């Protein structure tokens, strides 16, 4: 149902350096780069992930209460991607751990304040 997720950024180069290593841990590959956006693919017929300069050229904002959740293939990859996000300047919104029985998750904000959750369901 969801074809892609696009998060706003005010600096494509900085966003690329932030997301490249995180999305690599999660199995995505960069599939397209333009002067306004960078797109990563998790595979054919999978939801795409992108960062983009706002179309209206207004300042980037992040929504309070808005979060993008990404499915991850193991507890270890949740922790590795979360750790990489913090290492690259992201901030903690919830350390890795079991949230409800059978669900391991972690939460962080990127360099523009966008919130992401990483989830592995055992």
Automatic annotation (TrEMBL):
Q: Name the Gene3D superfamilies on file.
A: 2,3-Dihydroxybiphenyl 1,2-Dioxygenase, domain 1
Domain VOC: residue ranges: 1-121
Question: Looking at the record's lineage, which domain of life comes first?
Answer: Bacteria
What is the protein's given name? VOC domain-containing protein
Protein source organism: Halobacteriovorax marinus
């Amino acid at each position: 149902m969801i074809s892609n997720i696009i998060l706003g950024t005010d600096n494509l180069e900085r966003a690329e350096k932030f997301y490249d290593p995180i999305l690599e841990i999660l199995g995505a590959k960069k599939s397209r780069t333009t002067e306004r956006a960078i797109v990563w693919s998790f595979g054919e017929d999978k939801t795409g992930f992108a960062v983009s300069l706002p179309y209206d050229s207004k300042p980037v904002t992040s929504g309070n209460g808005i979060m993008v959740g990404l499915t991850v293939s193991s507890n270890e990859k949740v922790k590795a991607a979360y750790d990489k996000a913090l290492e690259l300047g992201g901030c903690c919104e919830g350390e890795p751990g079991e949230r409800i029985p059978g669900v391991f998750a972690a939460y962080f904000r990127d360099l523009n304040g966008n919130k992401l959750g990483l989830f592995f369901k055992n």
